[in-house]
Amino acid sequence: MARRLRSELYRQLEPQAWRRAGLSPVNRALVALILASVALAVLETEPSLGAAFHRGLGVAQVLIGGVFLAEYVVRIWIAPEDPRYAERFGRLRYALSWPALVDLLALAPAFLLVGGGEAYLLRMARLLRILRIARLGRFSRASARLIAALAARRFEFAVTLAFGGVLMLLASTLLYLVEGSGQPEAFGSIPRAMWWSIATLTTVGYGDVTPITPLGRVFAGATAVVGIGVIAMPAGIVAAALGEAMRPERRPTVRPQAREDAAPARN
Amino acid sequence: MARRLRSELYRQLEPQAWRRAGLSPVNRALVALILASVALAVLETEPSLGAAFHRGLGVAQVLIGGVFLAEYVVRIWIAPEDPRYAERFGRLRYALSWPALVDLLALAPAFLLVGGGEAYLLRMARLLRILRIARLGRFSRASARLIAALAARRFEFAVTLAFGGVLMLLASTLLYLVEGSGQPEAFGSIPRAMWWSIATLTTVGYGDVTPITPLGRVFAGATAVVGIGVIAMPAGIVAAALGEAMRPERRPTVRPQAREDAAPARN
Amino acid sequence: MARRLRSELYRQLEPQAWRRAGLSPVNRALVALILASVALAVLETEPSLGAAFHRGLGVAQVLIGGVFLAEYVVRIWIAPEDPRYAERFGRLRYALSWPALVDLLALAPAFLLVGGGEAYLLRMARLLRILRIARLGRFSRASARLIAALAARRFEFAVTLAFGGVLMLLASTLLYLVEGSGQPEAFGSIPRAMWWSIATLTTVGYGDVTPITPLGRVFAGATAVVGIGVIAMPAGIVAAALGEAMRPERRPTVRPQAREDAAPARN
Amino acid sequence: MARRLRSELYRQLEPQAWRRAGLSPVNRALVALILASVALAVLETEPSLGAAFHRGLGVAQVLIGGVFLAEYVVRIWIAPEDPRYAERFGRLRYALSWPALVDLLALAPAFLLVGGGEAYLLRMARLLRILRIARLGRFSRASARLIAALAARRFEFAVTLAFGGVLMLLASTLLYLVEGSGQPEAFGSIPRAMWWSIATLTTVGYGDVTPITPLGRVFAGATAVVGIGVIAMPAGIVAAALGEAMRPERRPTVRPQAREDAAPARN
C-alpha cells in the first residue's frame, strides 16, 4: 500500500509522470504556494507595513516553509520511482542532484528566521526564498523549447553584445572627451560616461545625466540613433529564431514525401 | 412593410449582413458617434474648459445618448432577423447576450447625468461610456484575425512575462540591497525598487528614481541590457506569429495539388 | 540642336529616363543642393549664429533659389519629352501636376525673403523650403518598394493604432482617477493624463510627470508592460511584411516551372 | 627547426590556420590581453582611483604593450607562411596591410606614455589603444556572416534613416514654432529642437527638455507614436534579413534536385 501511495505521489509531483494535459493538482497548489511565498518575501522588506503585519508574514513564512519541508521529505522518499534513481543509493543521488539542492537551499531561510540571528545576513538569507521560483522552470516543458530556440542563436546574441559593448566604449569615450571638463561628475571619466551611454544605447534614457554642449548633443544624438540598431538586432534575432522554431512544432505528422519536396523551404 | 424596414435596418446595423465592402452608412455614422462620445467624455474631465463649455458637453452627451437609446431599441426590435434569435424568446435572448448588455451598460451614464446624483460615482459612471468603444470590435472582422494569430502564441507570451517577472524580482532585490540604505525612499524595500526596475526593464526610463552608487549603476546597466531582451522577445514572437498568419490570407485559390506538395512550407 | 539639348536635359533630369545605375550627375548635384538648402533653412532659425552669418545664409539661399528657379523653367521647357506631356498643352498640364506645384511652392520663400515683409509669416514661409526635400522621393525608386510593402499592411497598422489608442484611454483614465487629486496639474483630467500615458506606452518615458501613489505606480507599471506590446506589434508587422517583400525582389528570372512548384512557399 | 617554429606560430596566431574548433590557446590569451588592455585604458581616465593605482596601471600598460610588440614582430616574421605573402617582399606587403597597420597604430600609445609628452594629446593617444579591440573582428568568422546579412540590406537601412531624418526635421520644426517662444533655450531654433526630437523619435526620452504647451504636447505625442515606427522599421529589416541569412547556414548538404525545386522559396 505504501508502494501505491509512493507511486501516486510520484505521479502527482513529477510533471513528466503526469499523463493528462497541464499540471497535476498537487503541482498546481505548489506553484501557487511558491508564488505566495515569494510575494511574502518581497513584502517583508517593506518597512511601512507595520509590526503586526510583519509578525503575520513571519508566521505565514514558517507555515509555508513547513509545507516545503514536507514536500522535500516526500520527494526524497519517492525518488526511487524515477528510473534514474531506481538503483541503489538512488535517494542519496537524488538528494545531491541540482533540483534537490535548490529545494534545500530555498528551505533554509524559513527556519533561520525562527532561530533569529545577525540581522543583515538574515535579510540576505530571506531573499534566497526567491530561488524557489526557479523550480517553476521544471514544471514547464514549453519554456524549455523557447530557451532551446534562443540558445541555438547564442552566438548571434554574443556578437550583438560585443558590438553593443564596442559602441558603448566609443560613445563613452567621445562624451568623456567632449563633456568631461564641463560636467566632471557625470562625464569626468570613461567609466562615469558609461552610465550615460548604457542608458542611451538601451533607449532607457533616464535623463539624470545628459550632455549640455552642442557637440556633446550631436554625439549623443548619433549614439541614440545607433542605439536603435542595438535594440533592433536582438529583436530581429529572436524573431528569426522563433520564426524557425515555431514552424515544426505544429506539423508532427507530415508525409515523408511532402517533407522531402519542400524541405529546403521549411526552416 | 414593417418587415421590409426591419430587414433593411438589420442589413444596415449588422456588419455580417452587409454584402458590400466596408461598413454600411448607418454603421459608419455610429462609429463616428461612438468616437465623438468618447472624446466628449474625455474632455468633460478637463476643469479648465469653463462652465458654459461643460453645459454644452452635457447637452451633447444627452443627445448622443438618445441616439444610442434609439439604436438599442431598434436592435432589440430587429433581433429576430438574426438566425440565432429567429426562434421564440429571440429578442429576450438577444437582450441578454453580451453585446446587448454592453450597449445597455454604456447607455446608463448618459441618463444618470440628467438625474444628478453623487458626484464621485457619476464621474466614474461617465467613464463607462468609454466601454462603447468596445463595440467597435464587432465592426471589424480583421482585427479578430490579428488577435487569433497572437492568441495562438499566448503561451510564448506567458513564458516571456514570467521570465520578465523573474528578472524584475532579481533586479529589484539587487538594487534594494545596494541602494536601499542610501535612498530609502526609492529603494528602501523590494516593492519600492520594483518601480525603478519595471521602468528600466521596459526601457521606459522615467529617471525619477535612479541608482547613485557605482555598484548600483553597474547592476542597473546590466538590468537595462537585459531589458532589451525583455522587449525583443515579444517583438520577435509577434513577428513570427504574424509572419505565419499573414501568408495564407493572401492565397485563397491555391491549386490543391500545389497546396499538397508545399504544405509543410506554408505555415 | 535645341531638340538634342532638350532630350539630353530630360535624360539628365528625369530619373526614369536615365539608363545607367544610380542618379545622373545633374540629379546628384540637385539632391546635394536640396540637402544644403534645407540645412541652411534649419540653421537660419538659430539666433546665436550672429548677424553676419545670417546675411551670408540669406545670400546663399537666394543663390540656391536661383538654381531651383532655373531648374523649374528647364523642367517646363523639357516637359514634352515625357510621353504623358507630349500632346498639346503638355507644358501647362505639367505645370499643374503635383511635382511641379511642389517645386513652385518651394521656390516662393527664397524670393519672399528678398522682398522683405511681415516677420512671423516670413519665418513660416522659410520653413516651406523644407518641402523641397519631398522631391527627393521621386529620385528614389526603391523607397517606393518599401512603402508598398508597408502599405499592404496598412490595415494591421490601423488595428494596432486603434488598440494603442484604447490602451492610452484606459491608462489615462486609471491614472486620472488615482493620481488626479494628488497631482492636479499632471493628472487632473484625462487629457492631461494622456501626456503621461503616451510617453509611457511608447516607452519614451520623459519622466517630467510620474505617478507618486503606490496604486498609481502599480497601474503605471502595468501600462509600461503593456506598452512593450504596443511597440512589439508594429515591429512584428514590419518584420513580417518585409520578410515577405524582400524575397521576390531578388529573383526576377525564376523558371516558370520552379515558380509553380514552390509558389505556395514563396510569399 | 626555425621553419617548424614559424609554422607552429602561424598555426597558433592565424585563426584560419587553426584546424580545431574555436581559437588556438595563443589567440585566446591575446583576446584576453586585448580586453584587459582596453579595460585598463578605460580605468586610467577615472581620477578618483588614486596616484598609486594610476602608476600601477601605467606599468601594466607598458608590460602589455611589450607583449603586443613581441606579437607584432612575430607576425611579421611568420608572414610568409600565409600564401598571400609567400612571394618576395611578402613581409613588407604584410606590414603595409590593413591589419598590420592597425596593430602598429595600437602599439604607439603604450610607448608614447613612457616617453612623456603633451598631456592632452597623450590622453587622446591612450584611447587609440581601444582600436586594438577592432582586431577581435578578425578572430571571428561568424560575425562576418552577420555583417554580410545586414550589409545586403544597407539600402533599406538608408531609406529608414532618410525617413527618420525627415520626421526629425518635421517634428523639430513644429515644436520650434509652437514651443520656441515659451522655451527659447530648448526650442528657440530648429537645431535646438532637434535635441528633443532625436531623444523622442529614438524613444530614449531623457526628459531634460519637454514641451509644456497643450499644442506642443499634442505634436510631441504624435512624434512619440511615429517614433515607434522609426524603431520598428530597423527591427523588422534586421528580422527579415537574419530570417533569410540563418536558413542556408544550417543545410549545407541539400540534394541538388531538391535545391532546384524549392530554390525560389529559399532566399
From TrEMBL, chains A, B, C, D:
The keyword Disulfide bond appears for this protein: no
GO annotation terms (biological process): action potential
Subcellular location: Membrane
Domain (Ion transport) ranges: 30-244
UniProt keyword annotations, A-Z: Ion channel, Ion transport, Membrane, Potassium, Potassium channel, Potassium transport, Transmembrane, Transmembrane helix, Transport, Voltage-gated channel
Any one cellular-component term (Gene Ontology): voltage-gated potassium channel complex
Membrane topology type: Multi-pass membrane protein
Transmembrane segments: 21-43, 95-114, 157-178, 218-242
Predominant subcellular localization, coarse grouping: membrane
Protein name: Voltage-gated potassium channel
Organism from which the protein derives: Rubrimonas cliftonensis
